[in-house]
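I have been asked to look over a protein record a colleague put together. Thanks in advance; the entry in question is below.
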Amino acid sequence: MSSRSQTRGKSLTLVLGGAQSGKSYYAQRLATEFQVVTFIATAQASDGEMREKIARHRAERPAGWRTIEAPFDLSARIRSESRDADALVVDCLTVYVSNLMSRRKRGSCNQKHHIDNLCGALQEVSIPVIVVSNEVGSGVVPPYRSGRVFRDFLGQMNRRVAEIAGTVVLMIAGLPLIVKSAQLMKSPAGTRIADATMIDVQSANGVRKGN
């Protein structure tokens, strides 16, 4: 049996966290378990600072990984790139939502359509996919409407992806907290992480599930 056939297998992992929480680093470490990896980047080199950041992130990734830019056509790229890879890393949904909202001046942004299309693509592919996104629901309420729309859009997208994901990881100060796990998985350090039970929001926080 070839190494490629040994590594292929359907799974979806969502890695959430705040800024500089280590979510991208953790996602990349998970992906090093696979031989042929395609990195799908959603960022655009819009200015000098972003160009420098993109170049730095490229240098940090394994040289053998293929990098594809998908600032708008993320769902289509997930579908097409899954045919020739053992695993995909999507980094990140936060920038993807920001890109979609930037198009609102040229037309409406159908949030449900984009979320449905993304989840459909993630469910269709037959290889492991690791998705990175920011957790934005724990901060203060943005004082301006566009900020609130962005927070709600991304929050709804994160929730829908988490629903279909087998594993959801929340990064806190560089440490992974497994909040949902369908099976045993290996940490980047190689140690076994015991099967975790998804947090029961209603019993743990005394609030109605889904709030």
About this structure: The longest helix spans residues 145-164. The chain has one domain: 3-205. The chain has eight helices and nine strands. Residues 42 and 71 are 4 Å apart (CA to CA).
